[in-house]
Amino acid sequence: MALAVSADALRTLHRLQRQMTDLREQLAAGPRQLAVGSKQVEAAESAHAATLDEIKKAKMAVDQKQLQLRSAESKILDLEAKLNACKTNREYQTLRDQIAADRMATKVLEDEILEALDRLDTVKRNVAPAEAEVAAAKKRLSETRAKVDGEATRLEAEVARIRADLDSAENDLPHDSREVYHRIVKSKGADAMAAVEGESCGGCFQQLTGNMLAELSMGRVVPCRGCGCLLYVTT
Ligand SMILES: [Zn+2]
Known about the structure:
Elements lengths: L2 E4 H77 L5 H36 L2 H45 L3 H14 L4 E5 L2 E2 L8 H8 L2 E4 L6 E3 L3
Parallel strand pairs: 2-5
Antiparallel strand pairs: 1-4, 2-3, 4-5
Helix pairs in contact: 1-2, 1-3
């Protein structure tokens, strides 16, 4: 059964509803872009923190080895002081062997300290790039925020304009049709309406009956039996 509304009026409503949907999608894109930007800042900051942590660990490794070296050297000094107090050759020789072994161990420690210092230098070189990445990510985020804010102002003004046009077009609908229209729009949004394509519904592509096509050709609006949307003919 045809609705008491013209195809022209419905075409206008359909256009306005589609514009509204499009504007809302554009508005929703802003917060998503900001969320991506915030995630990039977080990732850069955590990479930077990880680099500082690595430096701390590398410094601790150096300190620990240096402490071990000092203690090993002081042990050697102690042993050397005992050499003069040796009573037998055997005792003396044993002590000399011990000192020689300890000196070998300090050589190894010295090499390990050089390696640990090298490692410290290497991780220190990662700080500047990590800091630069944090700054770059923050700059990108603030640029995105400025752009999104500007866009939002423009889009909201556009939404208000389309909303006013929609209100006026909806108010022009006869009372009965308005109820049907609002019910369908509430559940389907802009897809509540569809232009006829050939002899089929432009929403669900169901073939339309001869009766429906006849009513549609008179510029009337007919609900689709397949998807329930309001059909109209484009001229
Ligand atoms: Zn349909």
